[in-house]
Amino acid sequence: MDSSEVKSMDTNEIGNKVKGWFEKGSKATKEALEKAGDKVQDFTDKSVVKIEKHQLESKRDLKYEEMGLKLSQMLLEGAKVTSNNEEDVKILEGLQEEIKNLSDQIREKEKEL
Fold first, then answer.
1. What span, in angstroms and rounded, lies between the C-alpha atoms of 97 and 76?
2. DSSP state string for 31-45
3. How far apart are CA 87 and CA 92, in angstroms?
4. How far apart, in whole angstroms, are the C-alpha atoms of residue 61 and residue 75?
5. Considering only CA atoms, which of 109, 81, 110 is closest in space to residue 95?
6. Prediction pTM value
């Protein structure tokens, strides 16, 4: 082999090594991007589910509030709580008394305005 063949071979070997490095780097980059994409998609999906869950909880809480307001109005109009659990009756009556007192205080403050 003469020196030009050695140089040519060295250049080819170097070229192949560099090409191999780029292929490995490209493959690793592609795999990393796929994993990152999967993680971003998972995060996005979970975020959407969390938002939907919060919206449902808010709607539920509004219904609880609506139900409590209706029950309170019924009690103010003279409805009686019937329950076998005396503790539940005491809790509801106590809450109703607090609501009545707060409503009275609100009316007093409105008069001050």
1. 10
2. HHHHHHHHHHHHHHH
3. 9
4. 21
5. 81
6. 0.51
Across residues 91-96, what is the average pLDDT? Answer: 86
What's the whole-number average pLDDT of the chain?
A: 83
Q: Is 82 in a helix, a strand, or coil?
A: coil
Distance CA 53, CA 42 (A): 16
Q: Are 96 and 72 in contact (CB under 8 A)?
A: yes
DSSP character at residue 17: H
Q: How far apart are CA 76 and CA 56, in angstroms?
A: 30
The per-residue pLDDT for 75 is 84
Tokens 């539940």 belong to: 88
pLDDT in tens, 6-41: 455 577 787 777 778 888 877 778 888 888 888 888
pLDDT-based confidence at residue 65 (cuts at 50, 70, 90): very high
Q: Which two tokens stand for residue 82?
A: 């019937």
- Please report which residue ranges of the chain form alpha helices under DSSP H: 3-76, 86-112
